[in-house]
Design a protein that fits this description.
Helices cover 28% and strands 24% of the residues. Strand 6, helix 2 and strand 7 form a beta-alpha-beta unit. It folds into 2 domains: 65 residues, Ribosomal Protein L25, Chain P (Beta Barrel), CATH 2.40.240; 160 residues, SPOUT methyltransferase, trefoil knot domain (Alpha/beta knot), CATH 3.40.1280.10. It starts with a strand and ends with a helix. The chain is α/β, with parallel strands linked by helices. The strands form 2 sheets. Strands 6, 7, 8, 9, 10, 11 and 12 form a 7-stranded parallel sheet that branches. A 5-stranded mixed sheet has the order 1-3-4-5-2. The chain is built from 5 helices and 12 strands. Helix 2 runs parallel beside helix 3.
Length: 242
């Protein structure tokens, strides 16, 4: 049986006891049917997995005795940041989940002119917490030992454009394609619009800020498909899928 991996916001040391919250406890007890003494793998984002054993389960929490630390997760050859226009509901969840699986180092949700979703105040905080839950679950499933950075959603005009590294703007009308570009250094920022794409003014701001428009081929891809296809291609060309 595969040993479940659980994220915990705690300092993990051999011999200490980590307390998992109600959601994790419910999943371990009711979904996975685990009992005291069963193995569990823990991680806290420091780059290592930690072996563990369930010491006890209740309706409200689970206690895990921490064992030995595993090897550190290697640093990726390419740090990829995804800046993406916020899309509706499950589309955004899907993009975040799969982008984490594909190895992004950071995600910046953007509220652009054509974004259907509007976020402010408490609603923005709730959505950010929800997206972070999606991100953590994707790390648990995929074996990532470091959590990508999830930035708060910001309006397009308030976003400080990155000033270094390769900067790419997905544009189906662009002349350049990814294989035509030079090998990047250590960082790539990928910018993708929401449903309907970026406006002409938004594209102009991006290109003036150093973003190179690139196309992915002859077809126009949906907002949840385009970033994932681009991430896979970038990883295959220059990253850890080579």
């Amino acid at each position: 049986m595969r040993v479940p991996r659980v994220y915990v916001e705690a300092d993990l040391r051999r011999g200490s006891e980590a307390v998992l919250g109600e959601d994790a406890a419910t999943h371990l007890a009711r979904v996975l049917r685990l009992r005291a003494g069963d193995p569990v793998t823990l991680f806290n984002g420091d780059g290592r997995d930690y072996s563990g054993r369930l010491a006890g389960l209740t309706k409200h929490d689970a206690r895990v005795t921490v064992g030995t630390a595993g090897d550190a997760e290697p640093e990726p050859p390419l740090a990829i940041a995804l800046a993406i226009g916020v899309s509706r509901g499950e589309r955004m969840d899907f993009v975040i989940q799969k982008a984490v699986e594909l190895g992004v180092a950071g995600i910046q949700p953007l509220l652009t002119e054509r974004s259907v979703v509007r976020l402010d105040g408490e609603r923005a905080d709730r959505r950010h917490a929800h997206w972070r839950g999606v991100l953590v679950a994707a790390c648990e499933q995929s074996g990532r030992r470091r959590l990508p950075v999830l930035e708060p959603a910001v309006a397009w005009r308030a976003w400080a454009l990155p000033a270094d590294g390769m900067r790419l703007l997905l544009d189906p009308g662009a002349e350049a394609s990814l294989p035509m570009l030079s090998t990047p250094g250590g960082r790539v920022t990928l910018l993708v619009g929401p449903e309907g794409g970026l406006t002409e003014a938004e594209r102009m701001r991006a290109t003036r800020g150093g973003f190179t428009p690139v196309r992915l081929g002859p077809r126009i891809l949906r907002t949840e498909t385009a970033p994932l296809a681009a991430l896979a291609a970038i990883q295959a060309l220059w990253g850890d899928l080579r």
